């Protein structure tokens, strides 16, 4: 029963990013089944999953082709490694298919088990690259405040979450941060385009401060996801690209969320108009059906590693896991056959944007941001000047609570309410989701008024 599961859960399961005591007090919601865009909990309530699990279930739940691919591979060969100059057909075929769907500079992949492991690989690979280039002093990697790049020591260090840095003595040496390109917080006195240039130049300032000959790489999410769906101005990434080019610095795109159609192109760097040297992926590569991640390695780096690198002393037991790779193959082929990238770019993505734009009329909504099938709204106290609510009120969490009870998974990042629904959503599904969002905003507004917030 639900109560029994909750008791066992509270007794034994330490959940990620969770306050253990509050979980024990409230009991977790036990999710037992899913189909399409709908979850079912252990009490039989259906919940619209507007977060695609955790930004990953791009093709929606219950896709038989992925289940079949996993089952068949489990029967044939459940595991073999890639360490002993050995490989399995799914891993080889997936490497080739990834080379096909990623931008043309990418012909090689290094597999990992998750996005965090992918980003750890990035740190080691860029430092290895500069060693091989005879510039071992190039060690520093520049990232951004409020970025999320994973939870391993290197991933959390690359990330710019102060709460994570405060636990475990992070960041590790050689990782520094610049401010995020969040117009609402840092650029309201400028047009968005002007702000994009200003925010990109913070990178150049940091490069000059560190010393251009010491900087190895810059890493960023094309659209910051866990940070609250921070969509940068259109001028930002092309200017970042120019700055990296000017100083010869490697440019790394963390596509863990933005990959595999999420933004209306195969990869977020294509939507945002830049050309990375390395690209981390995970989540959408298998639509979350099994864990898999990795790094696409552009020719600039691959050539040096392959021709001059000798052995790269790095890898994971599950680098190229055959069952995960078989699922990824089926998933990517499904994205292709359903035309999901085009569906997001030309149909459901613009429709989601239109519906989110209309939310600006709601008394609580101070700003909205969208990019493909990612969207955010900002809850504000005063729409006229964007005055925020006192953070201690946790209004975002109040709104999230209403969503949860009303049968909608929407995430709160501070007072930014965010969605990243499965790419298979139809316009009718978007309408359904928007009805729920409206209802939850009204309930939140009623709370705010009742308490005089
Ligand atoms: N990079 C980004 C942009 C992410 O959003 C995440 C996870 O949310 C990660 C990396 C880490 O991926 P994983 O949780 O698979 O380690």
TrEMBL record:
CDD domains documented for this protein: OAT_like
One MF term in the entry's GO annotations: pyridoxal phosphate binding
Keywords: Aminotransferase, Pyridoxal phosphate, Transferase
Cofactor(s) the protein requires to work: pyridoxal 5'-phosphate
InterPro entries attached to this UniProt entry: Aminotrans_3, Aminotrans_3_PPA_site, PyrdxlP-dep_Trfase, PyrdxlP-dep_Trfase_major, PyrdxlP-dep_Trfase_small
GO CC annotations on file: cytosol
Family from the record: Belongs to the class-III pyridoxal-phosphate-dependent aminotransferase family.
NCBIfam families for the chain: PRK07480.1 (NF005682)
Protein name: Aspartate aminotransferase family protein
Highest classification ranks of the organism: Bacteria, Pseudomonadati, Pseudomonadota, Betaproteobacteria, Burkholderiales
